[in-house]
Specification:
The complex is a heterodimer of chains A (about 170) and B (about 750).
Chain A: H1 3-13, E1 17-21, H2 24-35, E2 40-42, H3 44-49, H4 51-57, E3 61-62, E4 78-82, E5 85-87, E6 92-96, H5 100-108, E7 111-117, E8 121-122, H6 126-135, E9 141-145, E10 150-151, E11 159-160, E12 167-173
Parallel strand pairs in A: 1-12, 2-3, 2-4, 4-7, 5-8, 7-12
Antiparallel strand pairs in A: 5-6, 6-9, 10-11
Helix pairs in contact in A: 2-4
Chain B: H1 3-22, H2 25-53, H3 57-73, H4 75-88, E1 92-96, H5 99-112, E2 117-120, H6 124-128, H7 131-137, E3 141-144, H8 147-155, H9 171-182, H10 191-208, E4 211-214, E5 218-220, E6 225-230, H11 234-240, E7 244-250, E8 254-255, H12 258-272, E9 280-284, E10 296-302, H13 306-311, H14 326-329, H15 332-341, H16 348-358, H17 362-368, H18 376-380, H19 387-402, H20 406-415, H21 418-431, E11 436-437, E12 440-441, H22 451-457, E13 492-495, H23 499-504, H24 506-518, E14 522-524, H25 534-538, H26 542-558, E15 565-568, H27 571-584, H28 589-596, E16 602-604, H29 605-610, E17 628-631, H30 634-638, H31 645-654, E18 658-659, H32 674-677, H33 679-696, E19 700-703, H34 706-718, E20 724-727, H35 728-733, H36 737-741
Parallel strand pairs in B: 1-10, 2-3, 2-4, 4-7, 5-8, 7-10, 13-14, 13-15, 15-16, 17-18, 17-19, 19-20
Antiparallel strand pairs in B: 5-6, 6-9, 11-12
Helix pairs in contact in B: 1-15, 1-17, 2-12, 2-15, 3-12, 15-33, 16-17, 16-19, 17-19, 27-28, 33-34
Classes of the chains: A alpha/beta (about 170), B alpha/beta (about 750).
């Protein structure tokens, strides 16, 4: 089994939906499909880095404003972020969320799409420790996300979707 | 407040919570279901982790414990390092000694920023320091955002579990709270609708609050990062959306590196919620860049008794705690009464320990009295905290600092006297003769007894005292040919009768002697033997415990000029001798050496029968082989680490059909003197056991501990359960060749 296979198995266990897509325009198509006509938020940095994504999202695109990074995207239908790592051990992705706008897109959307490059899918959580040791001083928030937001606080009944995104799509890209 | 008024208030508060919990049946039913499903899922998760990492769970928890120990031993080094790295990342770090200092700092900060509304992630430390109440008094509203915490706040309630704060609420209660507070109807069976109401209600609060307060699951000193773990995402939102993020954390949360934090992550969620990992594991390092508004991060590091714990060799281990709540999830007493009674602000077994340091010994007194000493908590702790030992240590401090009742002290002193016990029990046995029914005391007049007495005996028929204790019986010293040659053949074995077997179940003592002789040993029964001291150890009364321990050491040493084996039908006494005596005689080298000399000599009877005195398979294949269920004495399983060796022994020797008993190693509720001090609790734990016994379909229930034998016998009798309860020794001895030819009935 490759790391991607293990990653898919573990991520699916934690109620994520895993896709393997070839390019950013494919990610845009997935986003438009799940947004069902709603707005799609991406971070300014992703927008700059991936013009093909921005172009494909066209008039459904919403970027957080610098004056009100959270208000401007609160409860947007879909948020797309580019993760730095994915971990097969737990089916998690690691998000670097230095700017408030990074956090708003990943935390406040109803559905999150987290994209990870195929060669960044690694085996073990130890890789996260190594990444943190090197990058923590530059990144004010790194979050390991494993599945959609959930709670079991009422009679231990598992309910998906409380404060964070209720649906999580993971894209292995390339 | 003075200690005395505190004590009175603490006692009244505990009694109210305890009585309230006892009359709440849905609470214990809910917790029972929870404990059972948690156990299964968590065990499966650990097997999975072992296969992922190729290391066994004990190795993993030992290395996590060692990492925490290094930090605790060098707190200041790690604190200073964290201080530097976190401030280099732009955070403000403050260290506070007391709860009051922490509250004042946070309130002043809110006031300086003109903030009146605060959102909060789940944090036990803020519960510990009563932050919300303090802020409210200062005109600042703190809004809990974890679903469970939010519901409790709406209801004016407190968490009853470290991880699942509202586990004591039933769905209709939640619907009632929401309806009252939000002014619209909620269907108790539509849990998702109740959950989403939190999202709707809290979204605006996140967006408008000026300060977000969170706890921390770890503070990484090499990077200055704060690790926060949640499933809902509320912690991340509380920390990210408001301009000011305040972290409140105990100083014991420090870990040296990110790799150490990841090791903790691997065991944390598996131990807490039986997940491989929680949904969000976030590492905050300094504030986010100021774009829209100036952003700040303040980290308040709280001592509040932690340095005192670190400096106390008996309790430093408890600072390893990662607040997973696993100890509560296996605690039979917690299952019956929940965390409001079993704990103070910190709930469950760990709460019985750290409450004394964070809130005062007076708040530990009531909750610790409910511990049954079964030892289950220690077996699941991901950082290997010696909880049972520490709870006993707290009990000793309660005894020495708050005192014991005069009647209890006198009773224990009298019990420590062999001569008094001998005479009194013989007189009492004759006095009770008119009420005797077989092994029990019962009387139709019991229903006219005062409620206090009925609470003690209505659910568990009391055992009859025998006018002739085991030690006075000729059968005990009879000679009989060995049944077979064993490894122990020719050895001289001192039989330690144990006080309960001696006076209340002499048939167990006689059966034990017969079995040891059948293995070809010579049995010696010293006449002067008395109690090993366990009841005094269990009630925190070290003076009387030492008195009885010294007597026992004298007796066991005196009869064995040439060292031989010592065997007792009561594993709890073996555990007391092997595990508690050394501590009891700390600082007394002569007696400590004599206690150490018991190591390797003292055996619990069933261990002896499984080990050196093992008879050949099939040698006791006589009599009824009907379905037998085997209760595993909790301390044998949890402290001695005994697995299913008794099942194998009984099956092998007799060929009997052994049927599975669910939760065989979970405590039966006896707990020594706890069953007398807290009879309702003991009854609740017994009911759990009897339900498993009923479901097993067994005709015979065996146990390896004599105290539990009497407890289970009395319980099955009072519940009219048609099942025979026997000590393993009785069951086996009845199948010895000479016995089965002429079944010997013991005269009264």
């Amino acid at each position: 089994m490759t790391a991607v296979d293990d990653f898919r198995t573990r991520a699916t266990d934690s109620a994520s939906v895993v896709h393997e897509l070839a390019s950013w325009p494919d990610v845009a198509r997935l986003a438009l499909e799940v947004a069902e006509g709603g707005w799609i938020a991406i971070t300014p940095s992703l927008s700059t880095a991936q013009p093909s994504l921005t172009a494909a999202l066209r008039d459904h695109l919403l970027e957080p404003s610098s004056e009100a990074p959270f208000y401007s995207v609160a409860d947007v239908a879909v948020g797309i972020v580019h993760a730095v790592l994915a971990i097969a051990e737990t089916g998690s992705v690691l998000l670097a969320q230095h700017e408030p706008s990074d956090r708003s897109v990943s935390m406040l959307s109803k559905t999150a799409i987290q994209v990870v490059d195929r060669d960044c899918v690694l085996d073990s959580l130890d890789e996260v420790a190594d990444w943190l040791a090197i990058n923590s001083s530059e990144v004010s928030l790194a979050t390991l996300v494993t599945g959609p937001s959930r709670t079991a606080d009422i009679e231990r009944s598992l309910t998906i979707g409380v404060q964070g995104p209720a649906d999580l799509h993971l894209v292995v890209l390339g | 407040m003075t200690l005395l008024t505190d004590l009175a208030a603490a006692r009244a508060q505990f009694q109210a919570r305890y009585q309230g919990a006892l009359s709440n049946d849905p609470l214990s039913e809910g917790l029972l279901n929870f404990q059972r499903s948690w156990r299964d899922t968590r065990d499966a998760q650990l097997v999975d982790l072992e296969s992922i990492l190729g290391r066994d769970r004990d190795a993993l928890r030992h290395s996590l414990a060692e990492m925490k120990d290094r930090v605790i031993a060098d707190l200041d080094v790690h604190l200073n390092r964290f201080h530097e790295t976190a401030e280099a990342a732009g955070a403000t770090v403050v260290e506070v000694t007391s709860a009051a200092e922490a509250n004042i700092y946070i309130a002043r900060l809110c006031q300086a920023r003109g903030v009146r509304t605060v959102v909060k992630g789940k944090s036990m430390v803020t519960e510990e320091i009563d932050l919300n109440e303090y802020l409210a008094d200062e005109g600042i509203q703190a809004i809990e955002t974890d679903l469970g915490e939010w519901l409790l706040q709406l209801d004016g309630d407190r968490p009853s579990h470290l991880v699942m704060p509202a586990i004591h609420l039933r769905r209709h209660e939640v619907a009632g709270v929401l309806q009252r507070e939000l002014g619209r109807y909620f269907d108790p069976d539509d849990i998702p609708a109740m959950v989403y109401s939190a999202r709707t209600e809290l979204r605006e609060k996140f967006l408008t609050a000026g300060v977000g307060i969170t706890g921390a699951n770890a503070l990484i000193s090499s990077t200055g990062s704060v690790m926060i773990v949640t499933n809902e995402g509320n912690g991340e939102l509380s920390a990210s959306l408001p301009p000011v993020h305040v972290v409140v954390a105990g100083i014991e949360k420090l870990v040296p590196t990110a790799a150490d934090a990841i090791d903790q992550v691997r065991l944390l969620a598996r131990s807490a919620t039986a997940q491989p990992i929680s949904t969000y594991t976030s590492f905050f390092t300094g504030p986010a860049p100021s774009s829209d508004v100036p952003r700040e991060m303040h980290i308040v590091l709280v001592d509040n008794g932690r340095r005192a714990m670190a400096a106390d060799p008996a309790f430093a281990d408890a600072l390893r705690c990662i607040k997973c709540g696993a100890c509560a999830n296996v605690c039979p007493a917690y299952q019956v009464v929940g965390g409001h009674a079993f704990g103070h602000v910190y709930t469950g077994p760990i709460g019985l320990v750290n409450t004394a340091f964070h809130h005062g010994i007076e708040f530990s007194e009531g909750p610790q009295s409910l511990c049954l000493s079964c030892g289950a908590c220690e077996t699941v702790c991901p950082v290997d905290i010696a909880l049972p030992r520490q709870i006993l240590q707290i009990r000793r401090r309660v005894t020495s600092e708050l005192g014991v009742s005069r009647s209890r002290r006198i009773a224990m002193r009298l019990f420590a006297s062999p001569r008094f016990v001998d005479i009194a029990s013989r007189i009492l046995a004759y006095a009770m003769l008119p009420f005797r029914r077989g092994n029990f005391i019962s009387s139709p007049f019991i229903k006219f007894a005062p409620a206090r007495i009925r609470r003690l005996i209505a659910w568990r028929t009391p055992p009859a005292l025998h006018s002739r204790p085991a030690r006075s019986r000729a059968e005990l010293r009879a000679t009989a040919p060995p049944t077979a040659q064993t490894e122990a053949t020719g050895r001289r074995v001192t039989l330690f009768l144990q006080c309960i077997s001696d006076r209340l179940a002499p048939e167990v003592a006689v059966a034990s002697a017969d079995l040891i002789r059948a293995a070809g040993c010579e049995v010696v029964v010293p006449d002067e033997q008395h109690c090993c001291g366990l009841p005094a150890i269990d009630s925190g009364d070290d003076d009387n415990a030492r008195r009885m321990a010294r007597h026992t050491l004298e007796v066991l040493g005196a009869t064995n000029e040439e060292p031989g084996d010592i065997v007792t039908p009561s594993p709890s006494c073996a555990i007391a001798m092997l595990h508690d005596y050394e501590r009891l005689f700390e600082g007394d080298p002569i007696w400590a050496a004599r206690a150490r000399a018991l190591q390797g000599r003292v055996y619990d009877l069933t261990d002896y029968l499984v080990g050196p005195a093992r008879l050949p398979n099939g040698s006791l294949a006589r009599g009824d082989a009907g379905p037998v269920a085997i209760d595993r004495f909790c301390q044998s399983a949890n402290i001695l680490g005994r697995g299913d060796t008794i099942d194998e022994l009984v099956r092998g020797l007799t060929g009997a059909q052994i049927v599975p008993l669910q939760e065989a190693e979970v405590c039966c509720g006896f707990g020594g003197s706890t069953s007398l001090a807290a009879p309702d609790l003991s009854h609740g734990v017994l009911d759990r056991k009897l339900d498993s016994v009923r479901a097993s379909g067994a005709h015979v229930l065996l146990t390896d501990n004599t105290g539990c034998l009497l407890h289970l016998r009395g319980g099955t009798d009072a519940a009219h359960l048609p099942i025979q309860v026997q000590h393993v020794a009785e069951y086996l001895a009845a199948r010895l060749p000479d016995r089965s030819r002429s079944p010997r009935t013991l005269r009264r």
